[in-house]
Amino acid sequence: MCLVKKPIKSFLLAGIYLAAWLVIAVGFRLLADEVLDSTIMHIAFTMIIMPAAAFVIPFIFARRGGQRLWLAGYMLAAALVLYVAFGYNELQPDFMATNIICGFFGFGTGGIIRKEPIASAQIACDNAKKIAEEQAEKNYQPITATKKKK
């Protein structure tokens, strides 16, 4: 049973998942380093929360929508922007490596055990225009063929 009446395209869905990842990445980083100024929270963010978020969010996206590169590109671009925006000393290069490695395994694992009906529905939603054109070409009958039948 689908709760959403109109399915969302993969690139928009990837934007939603990216927003969830950004809330975790930026929110916990600001909470740990700026608000609480806690070394323990910074270590928990760097070693537990960020790798878990970088694994789980791509895992869910790949499990539901198949292996689409939208989220991977969005996350890589956002990680680079965050790396520059927070300063080169603030987010260590480990941030990039953690997101790339954990994200890679999240996409791979989610793609392996994906839910096939949901992934098929997402692929059909993404390719709806192409499928409609192919169906129209398949059902095409020339004008001369219809005149001969009458």
List the helices and strands and how they pair.
Blueprint: H1 10-35, H2 39-65, H3 70-85, H4 93-112, H5 116-126, H6 128-138, H7 143-149
Can you walk through the features of this model?
The chain is mostly helical and 150 residues long. It has one domain. It is 79% helix and 0% strand. The protein contains 7 helices and no strands. The chain has helices at 10-35, 39-65, 70-85, 93-112, 116-126, 128-138, 143-149. α1 (10-35) runs antiparallel to α2 (39-65) and α3 packs antiparallel against α4 (93-112). The model has no long low-confidence stretch (mean pLDDT 75).
Instruction: Choose one word for the global shape.
Output: elongated
Strand content: under 5%
* Average of pLDDT: 75
How do the helices and strands follow one another from N- to C-terminus?
HHHHHHH
Distance between the termini: 45 Å
Which structural class do you get from the secondary structure elements? mainly alpha
User: How can the largest sheet be summarized?
Assistant: none
Low-confidence stretches: none
> What gyration radius follows from the Cα positions, in whole Å?
22 Å
* Tally of distinct domains: 1
- How many beta-strand segments? 0
**Number of alpha- plus pi-helical segments:** 7
